[in-house]
Amino acid sequence: MLAAGLGTRLRPYTEELPKCLMPIGSRPLLEHWLCTFHRQGIRQVLVNTHHHAQLVGQFIARDQFKDWVLGVHEPILLGTAGTIRHNIHHFCNQTSLVVHADNWCQCDFASFLRFHESDRPSNTVITMMTFKTDTPSQCGVVEVDNDGVVIGFYEKVDDPPSSLANGAVYLLEPEVIEWIHKQTSVTDFSSEVIPNYIGRISTWENTLIHRDIGTIDSLLKAQKDPLSEFCWLDHDDWFRSYRENAIHSVISSLSGELE
């Protein structure tokens, strides 16, 4: 999980909490993701940290995450592909999931996993989660062929040719991890890895909820979205301290003004 970003568009809120710990409902965004993974039987998760690394480290040190969620600290940001390369020893030559942790996602995640395993076109080695966006010029968007394979990728361009956006959730076959490992100058997944695999990236569209909560407006809108049932109780000291943070009342007040 790529969770090390500075969250500059969410300032001043990210001066208090990192973007991955921003509340969606009463829980941190990162906890929603980890609950999704837990339900799917995913039992090894890496979370890279940089901005407010100590706070993220305290979050993943909670009892429910011990032994299966590991923080990997980056004193200097390595870039989205650089993080994968730096942690190559954790990938174990198997299909791997890479998620940008600033996305708020509600979907049939089991179907996403099944699609990659059984239904993607045979020549593809990456499955990209996509979603329809109302603001394509503010997103990375893809063009796909009749089989849903990416034939063009456009990152935040004027007059984009599509409204099908990159959801920044990927399933990668081992050869992609190995290519990143060998390309030591490659640091960014979107601008350097994706273009190299045009024609070999399948797509799975999330038709439910997918938001980048990197802006105040999108974070507030996310407070109105329906929530899945939580996986864990909230009676530990960490959660009580989290709920006392003033950011909850601020976001609640601002989101109420949207009604």
Automatic annotation (TrEMBL):
<dbReference type="InterPro" id="IPR029044">
    <property type="entry name" value="Nucleotide-diphossugar_trans"/>
</dbReference>
<dbReference type="InterPro" id="IPR005835">
    <property type="entry name" value="NTP_transferase_dom"/>
</dbReference>
<dbReference type="Pfam" id="PF00483">
    <property type="entry name" value="NTP_transferase"/>
</dbReference>
<feature type="domain" description="Nucleotidyl transferase">
    <location>
        <begin position="2"/>
        <end position="225"/>
    </location>
</feature>
<protein>
    <recommendedName>
        <fullName>Nucleotidyl transferase domain-containing protein</fullName>
    </recommendedName>
</protein>
<dbReference type="InterPro" id="IPR050486">
    <property type="entry name" value="Mannose-1P_guanyltransferase"/>
</dbReference>
